[in-house]
Amino acid sequence: MRSVKDILKSNVLASKTLNADLKTTPYTDPGLPIANQNYETTDQLNPAATFKCPICQDRGILLEGDVAHPCSCMLMKKMENQFRHARISRVLKNCRLEKFRFDYYAPEMLDKPHCEGAARALNAAKSFVEECQQNPHGLGILFTGPVGSGKTYLAASIANELMEAQLQVLFLVVPDLLDELRASYKSEVNEMDLLDTARTIPILILDDLGAHNYTEWTRNRLYSIINYRMNELLPTVITSNLSLDEMEDYIGVRTTSRIIQSSRVFRLTVEEDIRHQMYDEREGKK
User: Over 60: is that where the pLDDT of 1 sits?
Assistant: First the structure.
């Protein structure tokens, strides 16, 4: 029986032979007369690398001796397929901790409680980013506060900086996650695959754990994710506009208890919704 290594070698040789043939075969457009054809080779038409993943050359696996391992590109494709509606949005990709603005919290007096709470939350976010790069197992963070107090900005900044450090991060908006899980009933997507990805990703960010219409079914799914991550010491960043008492009412006492056990809790407050302040700036009202 041929080994995996021999099979892959033969595939590479076949690919090289095919590429060699393509270089000598002119590209023709069947819709044009022969005299007007542009005889470019496929390499000339596509001078860039032909592989989407230069690491595995689109094979999807990497070899260590005679042992094959899935390439990181396959893992990323799996996550993208599973949570295609729950990835970090385009606008949040620009969030960075160094761009955090304290003037939204205390435009006139820098010693106000709003600013002090924001400073504690920002320092916690910076420490979390540093600690994750040193130790994959540790406490997470729960950012609480009213709508427009900067919770999602901090969570997205953490996600962006950790991804830039080549760490595996999954950013999920809780309502979107629950919609994905519900949709798994009517699609080929396996619910356990969705849950396993959220459970086992090294760093999970759950944004907008709010006052949604939680059923016993959705509470159990959230509990499954939070409980697994707590037991495996996998850090989770959570944002919520609920107080801890309200959280117990909406998602249950046992899930809230596990979030508290596995997280450091920081509250952000603001006199005026930051999005409203940004609107005033944009429209020249400030």
Answer: no
Kindly list the distances between the CA atom of residue 251 and the CA atoms of 16, 234, 240, 277, in Å, as whole numbers in the listed order.
57, 20, 12, 31
Q: What is the pLDDT of residue 23?
A: 38
Shared domain check, 86 and 20:
no
pTM of the model: 0.70
**Cβ contacts of 29 within 8 Å, gap of 6 or more:** 37, 38
CATH code of 137's domain: 3.40.50.300
**Same-domain status, 65 and 135:** no
